[in-house]
Amino acid sequence: MNQKQFERKAKKTIQKYNLLKKSDNIIVAISGGKDSMSVLYLLKKFGYKVEALHINLEMGKWSEAHLHNIKEFCSELKAPLHVYSVRKELGRSMCSIKSIVKSKAKLQDCTICGILRRWIINKKARQLGADKLVTGHNLDDASQTVLMNYFKGNLMIGVNEGPKVGIIEDKKFVQRIKPLYFIPEKEVENYSRSMKFPVVYERCPCVVGAYRHKIRQMLDEIESENKNIKENIVKSFLKILPKLRKKTDFHDLRYCKSCGEPSRNEICKACIIFQKIK
Ligand code: AMP
Ligand code: ZN
Question: Is residue 179 in contact with ligand 1, taking CB distance under 6 Å?
Answer without folding.
Answer: no
